[in-house]
Amino acid sequence: MKLGVHLINFDFPGGPASVGPTLARVGAAAEAAGVANLSAMDHYLQIEGMGLGDADAPMLEGYTTLGFLAAHTSTVELQLLVTGVTYRHPGLLAKIVSTLDVLSGGRAALGLGAAWYEREHAALGVPFPPLKERFERLEETLRIVRQMWSDDNGPFEGRHYRLAETVNSPQPLRRPHPPIMVGGGGEKKTLRLLARYADASNLFAGPQSSPAQVKAKLDVLAAHCEREGTDFGRIRKTVLWAGPLTPDAENGKVFADQLAGYAEVGITEVHVMPFGTDPVGFIAGLGDHVIGHLETM
After folding, report:
1. Which of 226, 180, 186 is nearest to 204 (CA)?
2. Is the pTM of this model over 0.85?
3. Helix, strand, coil: what percent of the chain each, to 5?
4. How far, in Å, CA of 297 to CA of 267, rounded?
5. Tens-place pLDDT, residues 155-195
6. Within 10 A of 250 (CB to CB), how many other CB atoms are there?
7. Number of Cβ atoms within 10 Å of the Cβ of 15
8. Does an H or E element contain 283, and which?
């Protein structure tokens, strides 16, 4: 099982001036530890209720952050977990991820979701359509990015988006294109879109969930794949661990033991979150006490 680190807290000692140097050390620590994937949130405001402060707590723009991390890493995969479909026009999104992939040497991935945080949309004046429309836009976005990353540079005509040309030069280095992840476990819409258009899933796991619950979602995904003619085996199956983790010798082994059941049902990658203000120390602890256990699964 591989391990990813999902960056959620940018309120570091030293204030805003310390953010850049800290993230540079995060990149170095991740590669030294053997982390496979570095991700950040795609939010304008910090999420309330996570114990990281109110909505006015520090939050970085996601793709700018990934561009910075690309310059301070050489091996880890880079993505947002996940990009909200309402935040960027899909043609521009395909261009942004293409640029990240080229500049990182082929290490970009695209995570996509229907978006949910209404407050930040209202705060910055970004339209927040009803859920049904957001899912319609999500499907069109998936179609657009796949077309932009293909040899077809013709028009796209959808209900919500119309592109006269889908020209995208340079194309991503990663072939046939950066992997596309659809985040979430909605059984009727989300997993269907994943089966039809995407390469990776991202489900939730944590202290209050069980491998059986995740397996039930994967079974639904497998059924959608069969209907769509998609090879279920090629879908990368990941989970976001929705809870704190103390990566020391004792807790690292306990965490690995918890993940064994998820490996048994087919999960191949787990993403964990450093809630505290020392992500560098957190990542070093993962390298010392967690990653070695996961590599045997």
Report:
1. 186
2. yes
3. 45, 15, 40
4. 10
5. 999 999 999 999 999 999 999 999 999 999 999 999 999 99
6. 9
7. 9
8. helix 279-289
